[in-house]
Design brief:
The protein has 17 helices and nine strands. It is of the alpha/beta class. The strands form three sheets. Strands 1-2-3-5-4 form a five-stranded mixed β-sheet, with helices on both faces. A two-stranded antiparallel ribbon has the order 6-7. Helix 4 (about 65-70) links the parallel strand 1 (about 55-60) and strand 2 (about 75-80). The termini are far apart. About 35% of the residues are buried.
């Protein structure tokens, strides 16, 4: 029989008296525990996703993975943690530990105070003027310091990882990288509650895109994956959310993801003036890319292309200036047709084709003000 409530819940005094109770009685009180701690709205959100076998639910209130790994039972159908993930120091390790304790298809439920929710809370709590000063310091200390090598150790020494600021994109991206998919989300009071399903083992990716200069895995000539250098325009771990964003919003005009919440305010500015793509010159110097050519694509975006187009474009080295900015297509079908036209012309006369496409793209970008979203 699975022990669903153990010493890990001692962080919540209100349920200490249940520790010595039989497991089934503890589980039967789960509705009461969740309602008292988080409210009835949270219970109503969680209840439809719980498995029928209540003995296969692991109910915890912890911010450390050791409490999860020390659980004697090998696997569960559901893990519910009522302590928000903002207080977890090694977040990916924490998610990986939960993944290890779940059966394939198992449910993991938790909550997070997102960057947006935290901003609203601070600005509403204090008088105008003071609130923006405090918010600015909060951003500097809790968002900037953890990401800079020179201040990262100091930040975690002072905070021990508690009350860290996480965007929705980073939280969901970390979950996807650790083998989960989002099947439900809802903001309730001051937290965003999420329901995930285990769909695979974690990637165990120890080099995620976390700094200002990032390297994104893209398809190159011959199908070889290489790192494309760009300035960060999205929240950390956003690269793992391409399939999620596509399912939620599909593609917008021009082939970009519609209403992409992963893009930061600074990122929109960088994209507007092409500053995010300047580091791709490194790829040009390394020989991974050429000046004009088809755009290097991520695995998910590449999978949206027709098979014949995929096979064709892998025969060529990708370029910094894609034919997209010469033709300005609006749909994915038009983008594929634009690339085929370019490749057909390139086969006949490589130098002349790249010359024509470069100057046509230059005209659209600098005269017609074509911009990336």
């Amino acid at each position: 029989m699975a022990l669903t409530i153990k010493k890990t819940v001692q962080e919540l005094p209100m349920i200490d008296d249940l520790l010595d109770q039989p497991t089934l009685k503890a589980v039967s009180n789960m509705e009461k525990l969740i309602t008292e701690h988080a409210g009835k709205a949270v219970w109503d959100f969680v209840k439809p996703h719980l498995p029928k076998d209540k003995n296969k639910i692991y109910f915890i209130a912890t911010s450390t993975r050791f409490n999860i790994l020390n659980q004697e039972d090998e696997s569960f159908e559901a893990v519910i943690n009522i302590k928000r993930v903002n207080d977890v120091r090694y977040l990916n390790k924490f998610f990986e530990a939960i993944n290890a304790k779940l059966e394939m298809g198992g449910i993991y439920i938790n909550s997070v105070e997102t960057y947006r929710i935290r901003k609203e809370r601070i600005l509403k709590r204090f008088p105008w003027g003071i609130n923006w000063v405090l918010y600015s310091f909060d951003v500097l200390f809790r968002r900037v310091f953890p990401k800079l090598p020179i201040t990262k150790k100091l930040y975690f020494y002072m905070t021990q990882g508690h009350n860290r600021v996480l965007s929705m994109a980073e939280t969901f991206g970390r979950l996807y990288s650790c083998g989960f998919e989002i099947i439900g989300e809802q903001q309730i009071d001051k937290d965003l509650y999420f329901i995930t399903r285990k769909i695979r083992e974690p990637y165990f990716d120890y080099s995620p895109t976390y700094g200002a200069l990032i390297r994104l895995k893209r398809y190159g000539k011959g199908g070889k994956l290489f790192g494309v250098y760009k300035a960060r325009t999205m929240h950390a771990y956003s690269e793992y959310l391409q399939e999620y964003v596509y399912k939620m919003n599909s593609l917008d005009e021009g082939g970009k993801f519609k209403d992409d919440f992963r893009v930061t305010t600074l990122g929109r500015f960088l994209r507007k003036f092409w500053l995010d793509e300047l580091p791709m010159v490194i790829n040009l110097l390394k020989g991974d890319m050429k000046l004009v050519g088809v755009r290097p694509l991520s695995s998910h975006y590449f999978s949206l292309y027709d098979e014949q187009v995929r096979e064709r474009r892998l025969k060529y080295k990708p370029g910094l200036v894609p034919p997209y900015y010469a033709d300005m297509p609006k749909t994915l079908d038009e983008i594929m047709a634009s690339e085929i036209r370019y490749l057909d012309a390139y086969d006949k006369n490589p130098l002349l084709t790249d010359f024509k496409y470069f100057w046509k793209a230059w005209y659209n970008i600098f005269i017609k003000r074509a911009r990336s979203k």
